[in-house]
Task: structure prediction
Amino acid sequence: MNENEPFIGIDLGTTNSVVATVIDGVPRVIASRTGQTLTPSVVAVARNGKRLVGHMAKRQAITNPENTAYAAKRLIGRRWGSPEVEDARKALPYEVVAGPEGNDIRAVLGGRTFAIPELSALVLAELKADAEAFFGRRVTKAVITVPAYFNDGQRQGTKDAGRIAGLEVVRIINEPTSAALAYGFGKQMEKKVCVIDLGGGTFDVSILDVGKSVYDVIAVGGDTYLGGEDFDRRVMDWLVFSFAQEHQGIDLRQDKMALQRLRDAAERAKIELSEAPQAAIHLPFLASGAEGKAAVHLDRQLSREKLEELTKDLVDRTIQVAERTLRDAGVRVGQIGEVLLVGGMTRMPRVQQAVRHHFGREPSRGVHPEEVVALGAAIQAHALLHPQKGKEVLLLDVTPQNLGILVVGGYFSTVIPRNTTVPTSQSHLFTTVQDNQSSVRIAVLQGASDKAVENELLGEFVLEGIRPARRGEVEIEINFDISADGIVGVSARDSGTGSRQSITVTATSGLTEAEMRRILEENLDEMLTRRQVGDFERLRDRTQAVIAEIEGLSPRVLEALAKSKFGKDAVSKAEDVVGRAREAIQARDLQQMIAVEEQLDRALQLFKGLAAGGAPGQKGG
Amino acid sequence: MTAWPSPGEGGVKADRYQGFLFNPADLSEDVDLEVERRREILYFAATMDGWTHWQALALPWNASASDARDAYREKAKIFHPDRFQGRRLGGYRVRLERIFRRLTEARDVLSDEASRAAYAQKTAPPEEVARAATRRIENDVRAKERRARLVRTNPMVSRVARVKELMERGRKAREEERYEDAARDFLTANALDPTLAEARSLGEDAKRRVGAGKARELWEKARAAELQNDLDRAQLHAEAASDSDPGEPRYVVYVARLALQRGALQTARARAEAAVRAGPSLASAHEVLGDVLAVQGEAAAAKKALERALELDDGLAGARESLRKLRWSFLR
Result:
């Protein structure tokens, strides 16, 4: 492993994403090429067919709502037909359809279908490119964060997204754990910490026992459908309703463009109200007036009190979840030594007040609650890839939901209970129920209910090639394991003969291996051309800078060499290299430029040495 | 700096693996691990299944929950697979994962106070079991002494204890059919604690049984006297029997019958009426009243009483005969 190989930590958020790294032992956020630390998790296909990501995509969202995908995180790893997806379809302006297998979901942008991990991959690729611009070299290794409450499918989907973006996902870690890691970095913490993470789309609570640089998660809880966007929607609904009252029933929900403007305005007002007691919402020409009348504008004042009234139940829900998680952890409020607020939504004064009231202590917040998660991911990447003696950091996380199987009667039998420290595994013995039975079907689920249908189906596995025998004679040991990423694995073996059984996955909400390959190949061409363009420009700038430096030094070098008999051929060699580099730039020949780069560097070193050492008299004179 | 090894350290190191035989093939597997680390992993993975949770975390028996948490963290730092990210581990990867699971299992049991205490009891070494048993016996003796002292010094406590004692003794007496003793104990207990309704009802019951027993004895004496034709003595005993068991009307009937035989009609009439009052559905009571009335010449009333007696028990030959005689005299 190369000691200096760059690595990144990525907070792939519902609304915004952040990328960070650790340099000289200090974690820091990497700003985008346009200088921002937050990159909107928005992907769009413009009218000219060009793919846009981040700020560019967000800026054109109002004029192109049908082809702008946001909140992909809410859909990743979900199954077609699940209530969450049905809800999302009603609220999202872009089209969402079933995948080819009918299990997963796809988004249609600019006439092309995207798997949800592909959308996330575009955001990841953008962050990766930002990191590469920052380091000036390729970046492949990354730790990506997900909400603690994400299930196997959602984690798998996120990992797939990383792969599509050309990243080696070293680890998937939980956002609240990551935040705790960033918060505890460089401190000697010995206490129980409760992390409250209210982000754009998800809500997480984690209780950790921190000591001796070990971050030991005791319990996690959350709601993958509670976040800033729900607050925005409350404001939107209020605006739509009062607008309809004022203007004789003009329903703004019919107009996608108006809706997008409302969404932006609602979010802006909400953010403003964290600082100010009043926010003005002014949207001119929001809708065309009824029959020939002039266009109508929206002009309203939203007070902080009104916002708090509109979102009271959402805030209450966060406290309920926190309470439940504390109970699961077997920890009383008084034993919590630190309450950490993470996520943009915790800027809302009412949220802070509710937390303060419930825990009876002042919660801690970093200066940038949006950045800590990415910083923690970078710290974990650093700890995994470059372990340093004496500075070991270890994360011990837990699985958020019960893992189990479908049993007779439609019931759910838990194999690995929630809040079990991962990695972990558990074996289960199955037996055949018919003579000469050759296969067994096992449905693996995740969730909290006793009834199988109320839980999330992770996949169906078919065990094949069971040796022929009387019923009950063959016992098959199925091993369920959960990796440190929180991803579930299933393997089986005949406990009589010890031979391994093959397992076929017949239904998951994720991408199949074949489909994954297809997507990777499809994206490769596009990425290659884009990369080459980017790489060429980066390298050209660098090469030109080196050439300029060499030429700047050359009069002094020549002067120094004039008194000496040596080094004449070195100068001519350098001149030759500079000439070839110029040609390569002229011809836009990337390969040639890469070939010349090293020689150019050596020439520069040589010149620097000659200029400094070869002319001592100049310094004095 | 001295060259002395710290006490114990050298010794621990020397027989750390206690003669464990390492498989040379495992030790020489082509992996990215130092030899000492390999030994540690191989030894742990091969022996951990036979260990207690305390041993897995290298803790003494009955170490505290917080010690278990600390020890787990220290061990996790050594054996967690994350510590070897990016290294070639070969067959050691599976071993590390198994070790980590074993450590977690031990932590899960020992870091929770309730399960830790239960496990400590289950895994207590023999000398600890003996010590705990001795302690328990000593504690019992001491507790008894303490209670006795309390009883002696505190009137409130002593009364409660006395009531309890009386009740127990009363129950025992009742079981052995010593109803007199039982009644005395129960009623004393009730007197000490008037709120104790159970003592009262048990006491009354025992008292009644005592009376019933006495009455039976007296009745037998009366019968004996009657057989010897000593009707006066029989009358005395029968009266006493009736007094001893006032709830039993048969004794009253017997008294009335004796009085009638002796010709003491006043007494006979009063007793017979008392018998009917005490046992309105007792045929013999009505019968004796009828006989008394017949002798006294109140034929109509006598007839009514006898008819009532036959109504209640038509097998009463005496009553039938008396009634027939009455009819006859009526016809005459």
User: Anything to note?
Assistant: The interface with chain B takes residues 1, 170, 209, 211-214, 216, 330, 383-385, 387, 392, 394-396, 421, 423-425, 484 of chain A (CB under 8 Å). The domain at 7-226+314-396 of chain A is CATH 3.30.420.40 (Nucleotidyltransferase; domain 5). The first helix of chain A runs from residue 55 to 59.
